[in-house]
Amino acid sequence: MIGPDERIFVAGHRGMVGAAVVRQLRRQGCRNIITRSHDELDLVDQGRVKDFFKGEKIDRVILAAARVGGIHANNRYPAEFIYTNLMIQSNVIHQAFKCGVEKLLFLGSSCIYPKYSPQPMKESHLLTGTLEPTNEPYAIAKIAGIKMCESYNRQYGTCYRSVMPTNLYGPGDNYHLENSHVIPAMVRKYHLAKLAMDGNVAAIEADQARYGKIPEDISRAIGYRQDLKKLSDDKRCEVVLWGSGTPRREFLHVDDMAGACVHVMSLDQSLFVGANPSFVNVGAGKDIPISQIAQIIAELVGYKGITRFNSDQPDGTPRKLLDITRLSQLGWKPAYSLKEGLENAYEAYLSGTDSR
């Protein structure tokens, strides 16, 4: 169990997962949660990370800091994705060990598994095939993090373990339309389209001020003239989504992910040695076609217009479903249904609590 007085460093506390982990720890009565902003501590800087761990008495580390993004961002910035993530995890894991931190949780990603991995994906499928090319640099960095934790456990007897989340969504998500993941991108696109159909230009401008500039192709799709700050008279509104809509994806609310993180950190180390891998899949245990999640979000937002899938854009992996048998056997299950989770996420979006 995690003691209320343990000093717990949550790296990446301003990100969606890190913020949810902090909320979860506070709900469980933890009183000494240590956080640092990027300006206070650049985790890519080895010297600053070394000084931080030397100056703080840390009992546990939850490493949720990472450079993340969707297909577009991974394709556009592969060098930044592999370099930044390798440096962050290498610095934090190594300096934690050097300063006597025995317990650490590393957050990976379901993209560590091969593109054509058997479904659902088991922990044993790691390194059994070729990765999805669109996010290979990010995936390789995450695999390195898993193996780094395993290697320190093997050589030094530490309790470093990892969790592999499926696609996450919820409060604190990133709604920037060039760098966001599937659900936040859909939520914002459908919300903007609904505003356009309602003729609410003021609300479109407010959304843009809060969540970032609307790309020109999306403005055209919803019939919004950014140069004139008005809606076009001769353009019908539509939502255009990347790919064919046929790939299947699994989604998990971020508060469920945070609960799983704290649960896994609280387990006895005997469950992570020998034939038991040091990492655990975290997911909902079921998936859904992209076209169907789009329909659910459109109904939630109240959009009744046209949805069009652009098959010229990549689909990514055909299917990504995690096998969560091991985590279930370890005594955890998600609390949110997909519908409940999406309602919660949309409420957070409307309230502006997701503004970056």
Automatic annotation (TrEMBL):
Domain NAD-dependent epimerase/dehydratase: residue ranges: 8-194, 230-267
Enzyme superclass (EC): oxidoreductase
GO biological process, one term: 'de novo' GDP-L-fucose biosynthetic process
Pathway: Nucleotide-sugar biosynthesis; GDP-L-fucose biosynthesis via de novo pathway; GDP-L-fucose from GDP-alpha-D-mannose: step 2/2
Top-level taxon of the source organism: Bacteria
CDD domains in alphabetical order: GDP_FS_SDR_e
UniProt-annotated binding residues for substrate: K189, W242, R249, D315
Short name of one Pfam family: Epimerase
EC number per UniProt: 1.1.1.271
Catalytic residues, chain numbering: Y138 (proton donor/acceptor)
Site description Important for catalytic activity, residues in chain: S109, C111
Chemical reaction(s) catalysed: GDP-beta-L-fucose + NADP(+) = GDP-4-dehydro-alpha-D-rhamnose + NADPH + H(+)
PANTHER family with a match to the protein in the record: GDP-L-FUCOSE SYNTHASE (PTHR43238)
UniProt record similarity statement: Belongs to the NAD(P)-dependent epimerase/dehydratase family. Fucose synthase subfamily.
Function: Catalyzes the two-step NADP-dependent conversion of GDP-4-dehydro-6-deoxy-D-mannose to GDP-fucose, involving an epimerase and a reductase reaction.
Protein name: GDP-L-fucose synthase
